[in-house]
Amino acid sequence: MVREVSESCLDSLLTEVVSCYCNRFYPNKHDLAARRIEAIGYQVGHQLSERYTMERPRFNDHLEAIKFICKDFWLELFKKHVDNLRTNHRGTFVLQDNKFCWLARMSIDPFADSGKSPEDITSPTAGNKATHAMKMHLYFSCGILRGFLSNLGILCAVSADILTLPTCAYFSLSHTYTEITL
Amino acid sequence: MAPVAPRSGDAIFANIERVNAELFTLTYGAIVRQLLTDLEEVEEVNKQLEQMGYNIGIRLIDEFLAKSNVSRCVDFRETADVIAKVGFKMFLGVTASVGNWDAEGTCCSIILEDNPLVDFVELPDTCQGLYYCNMLSGVIRGALEMVSMKTEVTWIRDVLRGDDVFELQVKLLKQVPEEYPYKDDE
Fold first, then answer.
1. Residues facing residue B19 across a β-bridge
2. Cβ of B30 and A3 within 8 Å?
3. How far apart are CA B27 and CA A37, in angstroms?
4. In this structure, CATH architecture of domain A7-106+127-175
5. Confidence of residue B23 (pLDDT cuts 50, 70, 90)
6. Domain limits of chain A?
7. Which tens digit of pLDDT belongs to each residue from A45-94?
8. Using CA atoms, how far apart are residues B77 and B8, in angstroms rounded to an integer?
9. Could you tell me the pTM of the whole model?
10. Which ranges of A20-128 does DSSP label H, i.e. alpha helix?
11. Interface residue A43 vs chain B (CB under 8 A)
12. Is this complex's ipTM strictly greater than 0.85?
């Protein structure tokens, strides 16, 4: 029997970490806060990859590893599969989750400025503060994915995007290069 | 409408959304590790963990009250029992016990044998003085403050420091009566 805790434990912990780093430690330095949050995720992903791939043979290629993430890994973490996987066959994968649980209960600011580009998170105006907070939460998940893959020898950059607020998140993994360990 | 009976910790835990404890344990560990890297001083990390716990506790109490249907506790003894039997169970899935009451009934120990926060955890020698689970003490302090009790929560025993159980001392400092938020203007 897998040990469990209440979902609100994890939710509260994540919310508090994001709030702590964004508002208390680095109040006007969103880049620094984001990097720290991503680093925490990286650590988690790294350790999870050891535990979840212990009993299976080595992945033959990147696609197999990504498919493992989409099915088994997502299932362990979020109790569902990734809803959609796309690739450009040149090293970039896009995972789409239509109801990403860590965003599912966030409220949307009705006055959010939807015209702004989603990549511009360094200077949140009053209008897209909600989106900014959500992106901060996504850094943690990006870190988990990056950490997970790096322990399998797949070094990549992971970025996330919110398509239809608030419940759809893309994770775009573009792999930089593969590290082969003998 | 007849009052709803309070639910046991097991019943609540069985009915709420649950997640893999490993993810929670590893996330907590990664947070402590990152705090140690960023803050460097163990005392500062202890303080931040307690503060984070406090911020979590002041919100967690709402969920606790909503889901557990406990009625107002008659005295601090009942409060401690409820924390140990219902609170810990419904969030962390483990039951704690209460002991070491003082004569006035304002100070007790909550003893935890099984703690999901510390699965796979070992403290290196460089972390002497770290209270790894200090977030728990903040959570209890924050939650109790929201129900009008000012408390002081300190660690007496810590498994990561070589003891056999986790023992948290909860001392009731002051019962703050609920204030009516509006001034009566005559």
1. A5
2. no
3. 11
4. 2-Layer Sandwich (3.30)
5. very high
6. 7-106+127-175
7. 999 999 888 888 888 888 888 899 999 999 988 888 988 888 888 888 88
8. 17
9. 0.87
10. 30-52, 62-68, 74-78, 101-104
11. yes
12. yes
